[in-house]
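Hey team,

Filing this mostly as a record. A colleague (T.K.) asked me to run one chain through the structure pipeline before their review meeting, and I want the input and output archived in the tracker in case anyone asks later how it was produced. No errors, nothing strange. Just documentation.

Input sequence:
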Amino acid sequence: MGPGIISSLLSGKGKTKTVTNVKNPALQRWIDQGITDYAGIRAGGQEGLADWVQSFIADKPSAAKRSAEEIANLDRYYSGAAANQLGALGRAEDAAYQAAADRAAGMVRANRSRAEVGGGGPDTYYDRLALRNTGDIMTNAAANAASRDRAQWEWMERMKSGLSGQRQSLADAYSGRALLPSMMARNMERENMGHLGSLGELDRGNKFYGLKYEPTTWERVSQGVNQDLNATMSMVSSIMSSMRGGGAGYTPPQSVSWGGAPTANQMYGLGAGGGPMSTAGANNFASSVWGAGSGAPLSSTGLW
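Output structure:
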């Protein structure tokens, strides 16, 4: 095992993981099924969106033509084309009045001619009749034309006022049409996220959550060693308490004063220089731990 691996084991840290506990397993099965089905729902929506975008792009030339036609139709009310058309209708109506007057005058002249052929002389009656008939017709025609022109002008003004801004709206709508595919995609994604969010809320609501720390191998070994050391130190502390209590076991030298926990030299009878364990020190410690004789079984007197 190389130094790098050893260093990694010694410096690594454990991981904190989330643990869950399901409240209602029967309900959780349906929630899990809904989460599984979500992938198919989303895929179907994406396929439909792709088909719609393809048709949308194919319809672009027709959409441009329709938009241009509608805008051109509205232009007629502002360019004077619609007014010219109305003027043509008015002139046609004037011509009809004039034709009616001409027919009326013609009928009077015909009656006068027949009267003259029958032996009568010129009669001013027919002249007066012709003037009255044609005059009435032309008077009505003039009054009608004035009323008609006024009504047409008012109608044109109402149309232009009502259509105000519509040409620009149509132009903007056609320009914004290019954004529709991305808008549709965002709307669909929003719907998908909403559906998935609902499933997530159901899933979280049906579970208890907690945290669990998983130590590394070194941390587990270190923890075990610490526990063993703690147990050993506890045992040593008990032995030391027995030794201080003046039991039948080991009696410390008179020259040693233990104000706290004994040192290794004090426990094993070593010299002040900390040299190797002496035979006498080893025998003394063995006697204090195992009883009266070296190698004898551990006795309650020797331990306590």
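Quick notes for T.K.: Residues 254-261, 263-278, 289-304 have pLDDT under 50 and may be disordered. Residues 111 and 126 are 8 Å apart (CA to CA).
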